[in-house]
Amino acid sequence: MMILNLYVFSLFLGGLLCIIMSQNHILVMILSLEFLMLGIFTSLMISLGGGMNNCILTMLYLFVVVCEGSLGLGLLVSLVKGYGGDMCHLLMLLRC
Fold it and tell me: Where does the chain cross the membrane (predicted)?
């Protein structure tokens, strides 16, 4: 059980580190966000066990994660269509 918790923590930490280190490309940020969600889903499955009542909660979580990913890809497509690339140089001005 301890090794499994370490695995989930490394999934979450790897995704967080990837988001911090790659802030120039939006596609890499979306993929690392999905990596974070995979770590949270794995920890949710471990903590809830495997009962049928918890199946609805995990399916709802996966539904929200998929909707978030599709919205991110839609924004990426509109950004590439409008500006010609997925570099975030113009979006960094909004950070101030």
Answer: 28-48, 60-80
35 vs 96, which has greater pLDDT?
35
DSSP state of 93: G
DSSP code string of 30-65: HHHHHHHHHHHHHHHHHHHTT-HHHHHHHHHHHHHH
pLDDT digits (tens, 9 = 90+) for 53-85: 677 888 888 899 999 889 988 988 887 787 776
Buried b (16+ CB within 10 A) or exposed e, 35-52: bbbebebbbeeeeeeeee
Q: Distance from CA of residue 49 to its chain's centroid? A: 23
At the second CATH level, the architecture of 2-94 is Orthogonal Bundle (1.10)
**DSSP 3-state assignment of 84?**
coil
